[in-house]
Amino acid sequence: MDRAQKQAEIEELDRAFSESGVVVISHYVGLTVAQMSELRAQMRNVGARAKVAKNTLARRAFEGKPGAGAAEYLKGQTLLAFSEDPVAAAKVVVDFSKKNDKLVVLGGAMGATVLNADGVKALAELPSLDQLRGGLIGLLQAPASKVARVVQAPAGQLARVFAAYSEKDAA
């Protein structure tokens, strides 16, 4: 890899770290190509990315970032996973590591917070941003539907009273 390629790689990682809500660092020693492809496909499905990069280039990309302390986990064969949703990448990596013991979660960074392996696992247990949005919308819609039913109830009662009077007059 020549100097220009290294600089391009650092800039790509720098951009990914800046735009991401979370960066998860893990070891992937022993994963087959098929397993790695499966992991990358799962990451794409949730809007996350996984990248294998040289540790020295990743350390340089981390420099000056709020979560730069996570660079201490960049030892050995590391896989970087990142996503805008702070939970998505962590959830996929942790779920995949439960099924495959060759993927070991080391730690990561979420904003300025450096996470250890337990922190990443705790983050993975949280609901995703989309799930939180859905729950919030459900909470907001529930009172509106209740108000609509309450408002419609008197009109329905009046209609039944009028129907009863009309039946009585007809008889």
Beta fraction: 15-25%
Characterize the main sheet. Answer: 5 strands, antiparallel
Strand adjacency order, main sheet: 2-3-1-4-5
Structural class: alpha+beta
Determine the fraction of residues in helical runs and give it as a percent range: 55-70%
User: Uncertain spans, ≥5 residues at pLDDT below 50?
Assistant: none
Gyration radius, to the nearest Å? 26 Å
Instruction: List the helices and strands in order.
Output: HEHEHEHEEHH
Number of strands: 5
Globular, elongated, flat, extended or rod-shaped: what is the shape? elongated
The H-level CATH homologous superfamily of the largest domain, spelled out, is: Ribosomal protein L10, N-terminal RNA-binding domain
CATH architecture title of the largest domain: 2-Layer Sandwich
Q: Report the CATH C-level class of the largest domain.
A: Alpha Beta
Number of domain units = 2
Task: Determine the mean pLDDT.
Answer: 84
- At CATH level 3, the topology of the largest domain is Alpha-Beta Plaits
In a nutshell, what does this entry contain?
By secondary structure, this protein is of the alpha+beta class. The chain has helices spanning 3-19, 33-45, 55-62, 88-99, 117-124, 129-170, and strands at residues 22-27, 48-52, 78-83, 104-110, 113-116.
